[in-house]
Amino acid sequence: MINRWLLLLVCLFTLSTVSGCFEQHSIENLTISMLVGIDVNENGQLIISQSSPVFSTEAKENEEDYEVISNSMRSARDRFDTLTLGLTSSNKAQVILIGKELTKVNGWQSLIDVFFRDSRNTVSARMVYVDGPVSEIINFKPKDKPRLPFHLSKLIDTALKRNDTTRTTIQDFHRQLHEKGNTPSLTAMRKEKDIILLGTALLNQQAGFVMNVTPGETKLLYILENKTRGEFPYTLIMPMNESEGIINKNILSFNMQKIKTKIKASYSDGKFKFNVHIKGQIYLTEKLFNKGIRDSFDELEQKISKLMKRDFTKLVTKLQRAAIDPAGFGMYARAYAYPEWKKAEKNWTDAFKEADVNVNVNFKLIGVGAIE
Amino acid sequence: MASSGGTVHEQLQHNISQLQTIFTLAPDLVIRSMDTEQGASAVVAYFEGLVDMNSINNDVLRPFFHSIHNQEGVVPVTVGNIKNTTKWSEIEHGLLIGKSVVFMEGQAKAFLLDTSGWPQRAIEDPQIEASIKGAHQGFVETAQLNIALIRRYIPNRELKITELTVGARGKTSISIMYLQDVADPEILTELVERIGKVDVDAIINTGELAEFVEDRSFSPFPQLLMTERPDSAASHILQGRFVIVVDRSPSVLIAPVTFVAFFQSVDDYSMRWSIATFIRLLRMFAFMIALFLPSIYISFLTFNFEVIPIQLVLSIAESREKVPFHPFLEAVMMEITLEMMREAGIRLPAPIGQTVGLVGGIIIGQTAVQAGIVSNIMVIVVSVTAIASFIIPNYDMGAAIRFLRFPMMLLAFMFGIVGLVSGAMMLVSHITALTSLGAPYGSPLSPLKFSDLKDAFVRLPLWKMSSRPTNAMPKQSKRQGNNKPDGDAS
Questions:
Q1: Do B404 and B356 sit in the same domain of this protein?
Q2: How do residues B264-291 score in pLDDT, each as one tens digit?
Q3: Which domain holds residue B228?
Q4: Is B416 within 8 Å of A19 when comparing Cβ atoms?
Q5: What is the pLDDT of residues B109-124, one digit of tens each?
Q6: Could you report the per-residue pLDDT of A346-355, keeping only the tens digit for each?
Q7: Cα distance from A231 to chain B (closest Cα, Å)?
Q8: Chain B residues whose C-beta sits inside 8 Å of any chain A C-beta
Q9: How many other CB atoms are found less than 10 A from the CB of residue B353?
Q10: Domain-ending residue, one of B113, B134, B167
């Protein structure tokens, strides 16, 4: 019996070293920064900002926003602690806003180290590129929208369902940075009258901003990456010789389904070659031209495939010209032509620039909608 | 008492005075002398109230007056159970348990007539273990009746009863019922030995006996199943277990049992098996909720708020903002209030009982939240916990879980999720190590027995359970033949 009590005591003692009674913070005593912004101001100083909910029912505003000039995220937290009522904690950060000016600073990506090193921090916050100053978004308080962090995360998550934008969590970003076979991409956002999503911001291997692609191009990018979850609505302007006034009567919209992308890579004549095969089904959702479909079913199918091929090729050329590889062609190069990849690995984007990419699109028209 | 050891005398008068010396200050002792036409005389003695007056008047007194022959060794009564004895100790005990004794002139022995008819309750619906489809007869306070109730389910000569008496003063008769060709004799020996060792004044209720014979007194879990349902007792006997009937107590003990047996009810077997399975899983889930929910609340709110979805974090924090107490204090306060309410509800007479519900609704409700004493979420946590703890069909197990909630809350308060997990591990290892009359309590999970899992957390169709559960180590493991109905194509 004595032994058992002794054992219990030892167990309890071991427990007490595991997780401190001292690390207890009751939830209402925390300042939960749900939105973290990192930017550079006009004077070239690093600005860290945060937005956190206020729980007190006596306060008029339900959100508090702070901006501090600091050198790092952790030192900024110390400054926030002197400002806010509770203990600042970014364990539940929803969105990390990266300012346009920050992406011009070399090596800015080292700032997010704290999210990985401090294990209490989250790695699932969404990273967003802001086309403009971050403070515009942090201080934005629309009357007809929920709290800003929810507003932003909902904006991203629902757009993602139709593949209009990318969702890159901090962890994804970390992987994309360290994977040599691709370049990072982030959600892109801008504040105009409202906050709007711009599609996807593409960065180079050094995390410098290169360009934005539209929501339409984002879908194509997803297909190239073989990430074909969710819906893929797409609109094409068909060469139907109809009038192009206020209403462009050449428009055809459809949903792409069951898309399968196969990429094969090879190396010959001093450059990489990629053969991309995209298969899928198409279901029409909108048609403005008058020409009937029934007689020209196969013809239409081929036309759509051809136009899609044009769009894909255009996008790939655009990426090659900008020397970025967000679709991850490099990973296929590594899989299919390892010796050559090994040589080109260090400057993959340069090698990608020279590569031949041949896209083949084969869509099947499976439905024309409920009316003729 | 010097006289207890002696034997019955031939002279009637001697016997009467002996009786009067044994039972002094016992005004309810009736000594009735009878002189018949033949001149022979006899005496009937009994305790008023412990005997059936009808039986005394019609079956003893009347035949005596009409046809007494005073034949050696024959007593002219029309009573079923007659026993002759010469020992005063037996006479004394017989009288005290409601028998009447007849002495006859010139005979050095006494006749013990079973005329017992003490006050007893009619057989009613079981109060605690109500059932929807099961029988509506519950045990009563008379062992003979309880035994009869069980025998009605198993009219088989292999159903044996081992009788024991416990208590120096109470002399409670204990009957162990079992199927001789099924039940394990070693467990019986163990049980008889344990009951034999009990040296107390009296056993007033079954629970007292359970505490003297169970394996581990310090465990929070009941190791013997107490039931007031004859059908449940009979079903356990058929599975090769032992049923201990304690006289004067309306519930019987079943041993050896397993942990999962406390989560089963007789209704499970009369419902469709798929539904019974769902309900059993629901009970296991409720067990987890009742045990862990308040501590999960505490640990999440104080250590690991990251695991709560963000919208919920906001609403919890908003309602917690007004509460001046630490989440642990808040939870303990509410749980204790709930326990007080429950206890009050049990002891209060029915007409006042409603008041408890009314008042309770105020404490565990919106009013408490508005007063800023507790948060919304805490009220929900407490209510869900309460409901979950009431789902567990066995009262003792439910009580054990309600009690264990508090140490769990303490662990969660001190060590967060780590403490919670350690607590759960301690419980699991305790249940694994626990035995019931030497048989493993954690069966069929530890030791793992796949065939027994058919009737543990789920209830498969009855025709699949062709063997008895192994935990009671039955001698005959085959329970039934192939009963699979032809209906299904497979």
A1: yes
A2: 998 899 999 999 999 999 999 999 999 9
A3: 143-259
A4: yes
A5: 888 988 888 888 889 9
A6: 888 888 888 8
A7: 26
A8: 301-303, 305-306, 310-311, 313-314, 316-318, 320-323, 326-327, 414-419, 422, 426
A9: 13
A10: B113
